[in-house]
Prior knowledge:
By secondary structure, the protein is α/β, with parallel strands linked by helices. The protein has 13 helices and 13 strands. It has helices spanning 16-30, 48-55, 90-94, 112-123, 143-148, 204-208, 216-235, 253-261, 268-276, 278-282, 304-314, 350-355, 357-381; strands at 2-5, 35-38, 59-66, 72-80, 85-89, 128-132, 152-154, 173-175, 187-192, 264-267, 287-292, 319-323, 339-342.
Amino acid sequence: xxxIAAPDSFKGNMSAVEACAAxxxxxxxxxxxxxxxxxxxxxxxxxxxxxxxEAAGGCFLRTLVTGPxxxxxxxxxxxxxxxxxxxxxxASASGIELVRRDRLDPMRATSYGTGELIAAALxxxxxxxxxxxxxxxxxxxxxxxxxxxxxxxLDGDGKPVGQGGAALAGIAAFDGAGADPRLRGLSLKVACxxxxxxxxxxxxxxxxxxxxxxxxxxxxxxxxxxxxxxxxWIRAGLTEDVEQPGDGAAGGVGAxxxxxxxxxxxxxxxxxxxxxxxxxxxxxxxxxITGEGKxxxxxxxxxxxxxxxRESRRAGVPVALLSGALDGEVSALxxxxxxxxxxxxxxxxxxxxxxxxxxxxxxxxxxxxxAVGLGGRRKQREPTV
Length: 385
């Protein structure tokens, strides 16, 4: 039996590497003879750069940048392809995991550190960038990132509007004349796990703002501010619309990368799966096991587990989902997965679930493989007619 263990991270709990180890342990307890291909994955969120860089045999560099709320943080990026390609995570510099839950504030949070991280990558001589933009704490339309790279976002008096989502309300003009000249001719791929536009009911502020601490009133303010930024881009002749899939990713950083840096949006999941060797292993496997911390309505919108399921089924390989929690219309999961289950063993409270998560995930994997084995033995015992 050849099995691919290909989970995402269980956010705030286990990294994809740890989840992969737990699944593997469970498989081998049930089937010691099994061959397990351990492929921790990501879809453009935290961990993307590390997984791609390690899979490609690259190296890592660290640099101090400005964190989401202005505090210095140490961010890392990878170099692959003999240093020609730099691989970055927005989450490393401007991620939600860098901010305590009680301090989340999209009105203040800035993407400035992501711009500093891009500049540090350019300092190495890299001419291609691959940046994952999931897991952000910001809703600033990327104006922090852009200002760190020499762009100017101006108010009605021709002065810089400042940082954070609150600054969006003052935007009157956009000036790219002073942008870092190294950005010209740069090849930029954006690993993005959502397809939302920048504005409106399906836009950055309405859909993702509350996850970053925005109240309903603040989400409206942020959406109107992003509309001012979009209008400034259009007046500057940089774009005709902000309705492209992924423009609303990372609080509008997706739009900023596409419009101002020429970024090309790509499926984060597909990029990581390609670098990890997933498709090569898929040709040999008889089962794929994936997993994530919580499965809900967003899973089907380009999130990693749904992409793993889609590609596995296209190859005719059964796929199982082991999730920390299932939410929403759970029966619909069987449209994507051959097996889907919450790994929680009945603990009361999130703290207990997190405490036992490694054990529970390993147990769920073992249980799954035992069930597969029982099914095989039953089929062997069925009489022929």
